[in-house]
Amino acid sequence: MKRIILSIFAMSLLIVSCSEDNDDNISTEPLGAYEDGIIISGEGSPSSISFISEDLTTSENQIYFNANNEATGVYLQSLGFNDDKAYIVVDAGTITVVNRYTFEKLATISTGLTYPRYIAFANDKGYVTNWGDPNDETDDFIAVVDLTANTVINTIPVGNGPEQILVEDNVLYVSHKGAFSTNNIVSVINTSSDVLTTTITVNDNPDEMIVDNNGDLVVLSSGKPAWTGDETKAAITKIDMDTNTVSTTLEFSDGQHPELMMYLNGNLYYNLGSSVLSITDDATAVTSTPLFTTGATTLYGMAAKDDRLYFVDAVDYTSAGQLFIYDETSYSLINSFTAPVVASKIYFN
Predict the structure, then answer these.
(1) What CA–CA distance (Å, rounded) separates 281 from 104?
(2) What single-letter DSSP state applies at residue 229?
(3) What percent of the chain has pLDDT above 70?
(4) pLDDT for 205-232, tens place per residue?
(5) How far apart, in whole angstroms, are the C-alpha atoms of residue 55 and residue 57?
(6) Which of 14, 203, 254, 291 is most buried by its number of CB atoms within 10 A?
(7) CA pair distance 20, 90, nearest whole angstrom
(8) What is the average pLDDT score of the chain?
(9) How far apart are CA 335 and CA 333, in angstroms?
């Protein structure tokens, strides 16, 4: 009897050992060549998309063309990422759906869009800001996209020049930069009913938005520049998303018109020209003292992740752009890479 028990015990040890060995030998296949890295989009001409590996050891330009042997279209405006797909939004009126890790083309949405700008996702739907006719201030809308059929199934009328779009707790916030004119509102849309519920007035030309660590929606409005003959103040506005009301407005001095913003580790970064400035979540005023000045000739986009600050330089709008990567603590340049023509947006895949 004792011998039988010992044999059973030995067999159980062997089974456990084999099981553990199999677990140790399990390998995860990469999802694609463009997994775990930095994606840079460029408006063109021609428009294109570049990739840089997360460890900064490899880079590749023209990744969409390389995967599909076709161009991305005229004036690539933005990308959106949802599950295993990426959505390439082109001003000319199309959205190309690709596998986000291989960039192989899956579908094209080519009807129901007029001058599309940005896309966000909620409740298994895509929401795309559309200018309509940029010279007509009454025909702007948000296109609602069925992500399974890749078709526009509804439109939500909104004010002039809807630009960036952000989703928080299934509520959409849309900044209205004003297309070819100007505007000063943020639209709030309920994604359960797909109805515009309210608009929030901010300073002129609101564009970039983030949610800070305090749970506030932070909106950067660049104001009207002096060359318009009707200069207005730029501002950073904080919105209480429980009440959808403005809680704080931090205005800039005349002549200061930041256009870019990013957020990392409780610090809100913005630009004045090619210089980078920062305030904390609880700041009561903006600062005009730069932390450092980037190497960009024409700073056109910036983003932040994992203690690094990323900047794209559109250079002269005809040559290849540049990506600059800085350390958030020392503000020292870590590396730089060639980027698309008119490099404008930075994403993390």
Answers:
(1) 40
(2) T
(3) 92
(4) 999 999 999 999 999 999 999 999 999 9
(5) 6
(6) 203
(7) 50
(8) 93
(9) 6
Q: Which residues have C-beta within 8 Å of that of residue 304, sequence separation ≥ 6?
A: 262, 263, 264, 269, 310, 328
Return the bridge partners of 199, or none: 187
| Euclidean distance between CA atoms 189 and 193, whole angstroms | 8
Per-residue model confidence (pLDDT) at position 157:
98
The pLDDT value recorded for residue 73 is 87
Q: Name all contacts of 227-232 with Cβ < 8 Å and 24+ positions apart.
A: 231/255, 232/203, 232/204
- Tell me how far apart the terminal alpha carbons of the chain are, to the nearest angstrom: 60
Nearest-angstrom CA–CA distance, 300 and 307? 20
- DSSP bridge pairs for 218: 210, 238
Closest CA to 90 of 117, 56, 125: 117
Q: Could you tell me if residue 251 is left (phi over 0), alpha (psi between -120 and 50 degrees) or otherwise beta?
A: beta
Antiparallel, parallel or unpaired: β 171-176 and 162-168: antiparallel
Only one residue has tokens 């506005």, namely 237
pTM for this one?
A: 0.91
CA dist 18 and 32 (Å) reads 31
**Distance of alpha carbon 260 from alpha carbon 230, whole angstroms:** 21
Distance (Å, whole) CA 319 – CA 296? 13
How far is residue 325 CA from its own chain's centroid?
A: 17
Question: 28: burial class by Cβ within 10 Å (0-12, 13-18, 19+)?
Answer: exposed
pLDDT tens across 252-267, in order? 999 999 999 999 999 9
Do 36 and 340 meet the contact criterion of CB atoms below 8 Å apart? no
Asked whether residue 22 carries a pLDDT value surpassing 70, the answer given is no
d(CA 90, CA 98): 14
**Token pair listed for 186:** 């943020």
